[in-house]
Structure prediction request, 736 residues.
Amino acid sequence: MNLKNFRFDVDAEGVALATWDMPDRSMNVITVGVMDDLDAIVDRVAGDAAIKGCVVTSGKDSFSGGADLTMLEGLGRELGKMSKTEGPEKAMKAFFDGSRRLSQIYRKLEKSGKPWAAAINGTCLGGAFELALACHYRVLADHDKARVGLPEIKIGLFPGAGGTQRVARLMPTGDALQMLFKGDQLRPRAAKSANLVHEIAPAGEVVAKAKAWIMGGGKGVAPWDMEGFKTPSGKVFSGAGMMIWPAANAIYRRETSDNYPAAKAILHAVYEGLQLPMDLALEVESRWFAKILRSKEAAAMIRSLFVSMGELNKGARRPANVPPSTLKKVGVLGAGFMGAGIAYVSALAGLEVVLIDRDQESADRGKAYSEKLMTGQIAKGRAKTADREALLARITATPDYAALAGCDLVVEAVFEDRAVKAEATKKAEAVIGKDAIFASNTSTLPISSLAEASRDATNFIGIHFFSPVEKMMLVEIIMGAKTGDRALAVALDFVRAIKKTPIVVNDTRGFYANRCVGNYIKEGHLMFMEGVPAAMIENAAKMAGMPVGPLSLTDEVAVDLAWKVLQATKKDLGPASVDPAQETLLDELVNKQGRLGRKNGKGFYDYPEKGQKSLWQGLAALQPKKLDPDALDVKELKDRLLFVQALEAARTMEEGVVTDPREADVGSILGFGFAPYSGGTLSFIDFMGAKAFVARADELEKTHGARFAAPKLLREMAEKGETFYGRFGAGAKKAA
Prediction:
């Protein structure tokens, strides 16, 4: 066999070992070449009488992250090309055959007549775990980094190589559906408890254990291919089944609002598949998979959450002319909530951290935040006591700016006040080397103006974290008017070191994320003042695909902060820059009612010490008028909440604040949760079509005002039939 991605050996006892070890890749992924190799290996094992069975393992630290999704993107492109040259019927057959090839290889392996065992030495996800599930025995390494799972739902797909059918035959139906819907990754002991693996063993012994199973008489027959097999939850049409499926359908609708076709396809595939023998069940799954693979939601999510995010994480925006920097020591000015979080993620990445605050007590309090987070990780079994002690040893909490000497990068996260920030900048720069980069974590103040306090504006940059830092994956890097390439490169190297996803934007008030999400919050406030019931606003937002409603989000960021931002905007840009209805609402909540948000337990919602939050019963009294909810158009509410954000994203592109549509899309999903099924703010426009989007924006403008006016750029794109990715994407830039 001429294998490119596997090593294949047969030992003296007749047990084959297929070691997946792709050249020039740090992690194994499923490609067309890998499928070719697997197909050949299955044929060899099945056709050679001297081979008793086969163990599949990995030659890398992890098993595999699953399929290379660019391969699946390619299937869609080929479908379009072939439809034009050979007709839609022939093209669709080729597409279907291509989309189910992996599933057929796995089934051939499963029915080869020889026993197969998977020796899983680390992370094994997606299509790779489906390979393991097709094997007759699974041994998983018992170490901290080992995980198994089927996370396809997170990028708009579902397991299409047998995953829905095999998981639903190994686990109770309700548990299987939950796993498929959530896309969670299971640790070794959880995987064994769930009956997804047969054995856990030390990492160095997984191959030996797998071989021992084969030599001990392991059978090459899957449970579902044996006569008399029964699924864990019994038949679909049974008393037990009727307890599962109506509830599953209700949960699906509650959680997705029908925005995610892949989740609905999971319901169909499992429900229909469990009523059929395995071969027919796999064909049903394949047909649903092909349908979902052609959906705009899958295309959008794969592009933004896999391809684009991967490119940004690998440094797509890093200046090529600057050598890689090796960060060892960083300073953080301000040990409040944001500063403490930045210190934690930096120390977690192995960096030495100097955490500065006005006095020792305040600095220590900031360091204690890291201790609290690590203690939580220990309680969940995700860290050891030694890990906590090592991390805390890397953080020096002090009021002494002299401790910043030797820092490669300093991140300022002090109070959002120009004078306070300027003083902190000067104190730090008096100590750090002239080549050190200085960054501000401001969320509202323009970087160019803050850089005026710096000794060298070329080394001054914005690094805007989102709260809470340890959970939010996005970091917004802001270029000031004089920021140099080296500052950008170091900032990107830092963000990569702490395992966050960066987007690079140019300086403006509110930058990118806050401009978009500020409009979302404002639209919720205006709806409320129009008389739309608060609960309806919140539910419409969730139905549109947002993670939380605009009123809840206001509470999270703090109602008094929203008031302060409004007043600062009014001071800087004049009275016409703020909406009087929003100002009236925030004034009432903050200054008259003392409702500051979650931080003081009362805002739009009440936050009891025990129990769930609930909308404040006094809200309705603040509305100048009340509209009949039965007379309101829910689609109109949903459109308003999404369009107001997408329009602002388009304006940032027109103004040159954002220059790469990948960053607008990835930033909108990771930064403020813009409807992930859409692929992000600009993909929302692209997949709708600029012409249709502008037409709908015109309708909203006519009814609700100038904030829905389509910018000139969008109108031009609508006339020319352009998309953001076609006009501003990487391909367009190369052509230029």
User: Anything to note?
Assistant: Residues 283 and 450 are 61 Å apart (CA to CA). The domain at 329-508 is CATH 3.40.50.720 (Rossmann fold). The longest strand covers residues 15-20. The longest helix spans residues 634-655.
